[in-house]
Design a protein that fits this description.
Blueprint lengths: L16 E3 L9 H10 L2 E5 L5 H15 L3 E7 L5 H10 L4 E5 L5 H6 L5 E6 L2 H10 L4 E4 L5 E2 L6 H11 L4 E4 L5 H9 L4 E4 L1 H4 L8 H9 L5 E5 L5 E5 L2 H7 L22 H9 L23 H13 L2
Parallel strand pairs: 1-9, 2-3, 3-4, 4-5, 5-6, 6-8, 8-9
Antiparallel strand pairs: 7-11, 10-11
This protein binds flavin mononucleotide.
């Protein structure tokens, strides 16, 4: 099968593969830089970073990218959303992905700079809204994805519907881990794919090794849907923390810095995500995609690209 050309505004990556942004420093400059260098779009998860830190991360990623495409991902639900957006615009980021909500303001602010904005959507309605607002493309994310979820429907159902409904390129996300998965999405009309869990299991991802081991050890039945204080469900790997959560015994938030615009305050999702990223696996939420159990190795980013492209091309 031939690779489609993914055209997002002025950007055309060598391969139509995007590394999904992952908050609280799960996707940082070493990963984003390596993905961009390999020919995809490397994305820094900006949610949970400080403004100066994000600027520094963008500069570092650029140095590693050797001219490749670097983006940031921001959750609209984050209180610092606009400050971080502004910082990325100042650093002349190539592309901004917006998850967990919709912002008209980000289109207004990027209009002059030519920066592409790509909302992450899970329905035809949201995709049309994004296109009307000026989106250069949309990521259509199904319930197979890791992290916060906007739908209980499969990526295989929503991609063809969204492709039919909009003229801008549609990028499929959720549960994609192989060249065959990628081919399935391209056959449904997607112009590219976004993967996150596959890139957690890379050498360049800077999470604690315990986080990667939790991915490698996860079985299919360990993937569960939890309630996040953000007000959305989320997909994570079952652990001690989730058992407490299900019993209504999760630790109450301490030292809250109001990181979210709206928060149920049932527990601190920021702290829970930071704990797991830092290796405190019993005290945190381990976000992961539905097909994480299919992956058995930690690879260099370049090898992940070579393998997926070889598998895809052989179809
Ligand atoms: C650890 C983790 C953190 C994530 N953080 C974010 C985030 O901050 N913003 C966002 O839009 N999506 C986030 N996601 C979703 C991914 O960017 C991606 O779209 C999704 O996980 C794709 O499914 P896959 O992991 O099966 O490839 C996260 C996913 C994971 C696994």
């Amino acid at each position: 099968m031939q690779l489609p050309e993914l055209v997002i505004g002025k950007l055309i990556p060598k391969y139509p593969i995007i590394q999904g942004g992952m908050a609280v420093r799960v996707s940082t400059s070493p990963l984003a830089g390596a993905v961009a260098r390999a020919g995809g779009i490397g994305v820094i998860g900006a949610t949970g970073m400080f403004v100066e830190e994000l600027k520094e991360e963008i500069r570092k990623a650029r140095e590693m990218a050797c001219g490749g495409i670097i983006g940031i991902n921001l959750m609209f639900a984050a209180r610092e959303f606009l400050e971080l957006t502004q910082a990325a615009i100042k650093e002349k980021i190539d592309i901004i992905f917006v998850g967990a909500g919709f912002s008209r303001e980000v289109f207004r602010r990027t209009k002059e700079s030519g920066i592409s904005v790509v909302p992450i959507v899970s329905s035809v309605r949201a995709a049309r809204l994004a296109e009307k607002a000026g989106a250069a493309a949309v990521v259509a994310e199904g319930f197979e994805a890791g992290g916060h979820l906007g739908t209980d429907r499969s990526v295989k159902e929503i991609v063809p519907e969204i492709v039919e409904a909009v003229k801008i390129p549609v990028i499929a996300a959720g549960g994609i881990v192989s060249g065959q998965d990628m081919a399935d999405m391209i056959n449904l009309g997607a112009k590219g794919i976004q993967m996150a869990s596959r890139f957690v299991l890379s050498q360049e991802c800077t999470v604690a090794d315990e986080f990667k081991q939790a991915y490698l050890q996860a079985k299919e039945e360990d993937l569960v849907i939890i309630k996040s204080p953000v007000g959305l469900p989320g997909r994570a790997i079952r652990n001690k923390f989730i058992t407490l959560l299900e019993r209504g015994e999760a630790p109450e938030p301490e030292d809250c810095d109001a990181c979210l615009k709206d928060c149920s305050a049932e527990y601190c999702i920021l702290k829970a995500l930071i704990n797991s990223r830092d290796g405190m696996m019993d005290e945190g939420v381990i976000f992961a995609g539905k097909n994480v159990f299919k992956m058995k190795d930690i690879l260099p980013v370049d090898t992940i690209f070579k393998r997926i492209i070889a598998e895809y091309s052989a179809i």
